[in-house]
Amino acid sequence: MDFSLSREHEMLRDMVKEFADKELAPRALELDNKREFFWEQVRRSGELGLIGVINSKEYGGTAMGHLARMILIEEISRVYPPMGFFHQTGNLFMYAVETFGSDKQKKKYLPALCKGEKVSAFALTEASGGSDAAGLQTEATGDGDYYVVNGRKMWITGVEPADFVGFVSKTGDKFSVFIVEKGTPGFEVTRREETIGLRSLPVNEFALTNCRLPKENLIGEEGRGLVCALTTIATIGRTGAAGVALGVARGCYEAALKFARERVLYGKPIAGLQAIQFMLADMNVEIEAAKWLCYNTAWQLDQGKTSRDLAVDIARCKLYAVDVANRCAYRAVDIMGAYGLSPEYRVIGLLRDALELGVAAGSQEIMRVTIGATITR
Amino acid sequence: MGLDILVCIKQVPDPDHFSEVRLDARTGRIVREGIPAIINPLDRNALEEALRAKAKVSGKVTAISMGPPQARKALEEALAVGADRGVLLCDTAFAGADTLATATALFCAVRKLGRFDLIFCGNETVDSGTAQVGPQLSELLDIAQVSGVREVSYTGDNTLEVKRVLEHGYMRVRLKLPALLCVTKDTNQPRLPTVQSIMEVAGKEMITWTATDIGAPREHVGLKGSPTCAVGVYESKSGRRREIMQGSTEEKVRRAVTRLRELGAI
Known about the structure:
The complex is a heterodimer of chains A (377) and B (266).
Chain A: H1 7-34, H2 40-47, H3 66-79, H4 81-100, H5 103-115, E1 120-123, E2 139-143, E3 146-157, E4 164-171, E5 174-181, E6 187-192, E7 203-214, E8 218-219, H6 225-262, E9 264-265, E10 268-269, H7 274-302, H8 311-341, H9 347-357, H10 364-375
Parallel strand pairs in A: 1-4
Antiparallel strand pairs in A: 2-3, 3-7, 4-5, 5-8, 6-7, 9-10
Helix pairs in contact in A: 1-3, 3-4, 3-6, 3-7, 4-5, 4-6, 6-7, 6-8, 6-9, 7-8, 8-9, 8-10
Chain B: E1 3-8, E2 11-13, E3 22-23, E4 30-31, E5 37-39, H1 41-57, E6 59-66, H2 72-81, E7 85-89, H3 99-113, E8 118-122, H4 133-141, E9 144-156, E10 159-166, E11 169-176, E12 179-183, H5 195-200, E13 205-209, H6 249-262
Parallel strand pairs in B: 1-6, 1-8, 6-7, 7-13, 8-12, 9-12
Antiparallel strand pairs in B: 2-5, 3-4, 9-10, 10-11
Helix pairs in contact in B: 3-4
């Protein structure tokens, strides 16, 4: 078995690390505290080719694949999780269009998204929650060459700045996925939710009121929307959330290790105390385990396996990486004491981000349901 | 007609890990095992300047490095940001080279590669900091060279004008090509590779040459060809001496000034 990264993946990791450390890190804490996002760095991410790694070259992507995406989200989230999460949510729409959309849609939407000139969001969740996808109430009714849509979506990341939003709606007794563009009459962002983690990124509620969408805005076939949405959320959403979690865990570990080496107590650094070493050792082991779960799943996607083949693998990596991020964040706060709780340091922000990841792209319990139902079959 | 541009790069221990670097007391050399390696930071400025020259005047950029097999990674990184070709000089015969033996190996490789209009080097390296390899290479090639370069202007007609940093100011130097320039960190901001350019690396030319391949006489390269000999290494200790002056503010200042004069500090 060869677990080494390819040279391309190694160089990608080094490049993203330098980008994150030099261009994102200096403003990460300030932006998190101000609840503002680093939008100018979206264009920069596009220039570096980071946004379209899973999209084909034909549509402006680089087709480097899912492992590349996992690595870049991890490296970015180590210093600025909201930008990592931007790649998680932004890629949802891009994947749905590339995998299920028409050639016309791919040409229209993907190149500008890959360049970071436009941004997108993808919406499933409603007031009733996101776990029961079939329970959603938004409804589209055919009217000649149009659909008329009515409904309301909640807890959707990045709708406010999005130029294009993909969303799931009922069409009769089945479901379909549509594209609504910014400025379409009847489409209105109605609220920015208060969130405790990933605060840089807006999380929104939006309403569709007699919103007329041309039939060409349907992604894939009418009535096949749940397949499109659930495949997209598993392949992109869950793996992306796992990548962010991995980065958060590493950010906590690195901050705690640095602090422990520098903080002198009883005349020597606290890194020499076994109570501290035990916590650092646990973080070190769990991060390594989470990393290989995540890399293995992403690598299998690159080998052509589908989210259906990998349902358990994907659930496992999201569940474990997010749990590890939470445990690492708590331990880092413990090691750093009052500094760990101060908003002037980044660890408390990472703990809040880790908590937020628990509900992203399917709750931890839904991951357990997926794994549990499969292994007891 | 474009320029043929060469960039000399060296793989060095990552300065972020300098605290882990050890010196071998017997050989006087740096023990690099286990320390992550990077392209010498100023060599990235040199590479960036070469890429800008290519963009401005057109041409081809070759990156060259002498080192162990893992130095290939530094060249791959150079290809990832836009160099067209990599040349690795890799042979146990090159091991233990001082600056002159390194410049000699590079000279032999340049002779084999052909003529270059412009050669860029980093002004010095972070691991040894001699700033000698570039000037020595230019002497061996018998071409003009400027060290401490902060700005390069292409004035046409095979002529360059460069700004050379001095201790208290700068000097403008006009020179004819071919020339070798050793650049400083203020020359430019080195670019990052892109995902696209990283994926193009595998399709670019990478040459590996031994001492025999470049016709380098073994007695002139590596340890054998190195007139420099480290007679010993030691870790320098630095610390602060503290003295507290007593009395009124005026007395304390007077005493402090007297003491500083005694110590030759002012």
